Amino acid sequence: MDVTVDRDGEKTDEQSVEEFAGWVFDRFLGGMETLSIHIGSSLGLYAVLRDAPATAAELAARTAIDRRYAREWLEQQATAGILDSDGEGDELRFRLPAAQAAVLTDGACLGYSAPLADMFAAVALRMPDLMDAYRSGRGVPWAAFGAAVRDGQGDINRPWFENVLAKALASVPQVHEVLSRPDAGIADVACGHGWSTIGLARAYPDAIVDGFDIDAPAIEAAHEHAAGLENVTFSELRGEQLADRGEDRYDAAFVFEALHDMPDPVAVLSAISRAVRSDGVVVVMDEAVAEAFSPPGDDTERAMYGYSLLICLPDSMSTPGSVATGTVMRHATLERYAHEAGFSAVGVLPIDGFAAFRFYLLER
Q: In a 3-state reduction of DSSP, which class is residue 287?
């Protein structure tokens, strides 16, 4: 066995070096192919191939892109195993299989993943800002990442909120009974594109559901998504201001995948506690990370640290005085925030299989 010695005197065998070099190459390859998915998603190439197979010339004509680039992209996609192909020469035809079509073009599918590639590309554009933030200790605000990240976040969660949220909440009697009250008031704090708000409003048509967010473009998009739905309102509002709308105003309040982003989560939870009646419910849905730091982590842990490094922590740190939670908000951290806000306990609701999320019930 060949052995090398590093500068600290630690011995390393060549096989371990080769294996880790291969690990790095696999990630490089994945990153390149993720960007190729972004090209196909953003230019509408997958949508065209979903409707009918195409040669390079046909794809170029249908999407108004250059024929040479069309051929290279199609061949790369087939090489990566995304597209099927048959024929040869100019008659080489490419087809998008049904499973790939669902994942890359069907916004209602729980496996819809194209927005992840769009978000990856948008974050890559911000690397100079992120490097500066890492050196200076400042942040990169959410707005700086642009529409691709904002819309991507909304699009990736939409099928879960539209198709699964109602069943998930109905499975917990303690929550379902409160939401089913006549004229129940429900607050959705940091609602983003409003898909969670809309999911609640459709599941509980007798309730009045108010969605709040500080991001104006997100609220504008939420209004568009909710067109025709009469028991929903959307407003620009910070979570810390929720109680300003009235003490004991709401029967229930939710924070879906957002508390870890907030510069002052204790102030937000305190405001929610005051705004929700004593016999109401407060639910926080956040990432289903491990109970404690214990590397190496599973895929969920790795993904959430990726989000944290590149989006959530820089966004949080863009606000002076932020507690800088980051995406990896563990149960103990949420419990500490909740206790400081006046809640007595934080329990985990028996909702499984809801993407990579966990539902917490905050008790008073």
A: strand
- Closest to 70 in 3D by CA, of 102, 152, 83, 81: 83
Of 96, 146, 138, nearest in space to 121 by CA: 146
**In one letter, which amino acid is 136?**
S
Judge whether residue 297 has pLDDT over 90. Answer: yes
Residue 3 has pLDDT above 70, yes or no: no
Nearest CA to 254 out of 198, 322, 331, 318 is that of: 198
106-110: long-range contacts (C-beta < 8 A, 24 or more apart)? 107/155, 107/158, 107/159, 108/158, 108/159, 108/162, 108/163, 109/159, 110/159, 110/160, 110/163, 110/164, 110/355
**Residue among 200, 203, 202 nearest 253 (CA):** 200
pLDDT (tens digit per residue) in 159-203: 999 999 999 999 999 999 999 999 999 999 999 999 999 999 999
Residue 90: per-residue pLDDT: 87
Cβ pair 179, 276 in contact under 8 A: no
Write out the residue limits of the CATH 3.40.50.150 domain(s) in the chain: 125-363
DSSP conformation letters of 225-236: HTTT-TTEEEEE
Q: In 10 A of CB 170, how many CB atoms? A: 14
Class of domain 125-363: alpha beta
Whether the link from the prior residue into 296 is cis, omega within 30° of 0, is yes
Tell me the sheet residues that pair with 49. none
User: What are the DSSP calls for 104-161, one per residue?
Assistant: HH-TTSTT--HHHHHHHHHHHHTHHHHHHHHHHS----GGGG-HHHHHHHHHHHHHHH
Ranges for all domains in the chain classified under CATH 1.10.10.10: 3-105
Bridge partners (DSSP) of residue 361 are: 283, 347
Return the structure tokens found at 257. Answer: 């995948």
Beta-bridge partner residues of 210: 187, 233
* Architecture of the 3-105 domain: Orthogonal Bundle (1.10)
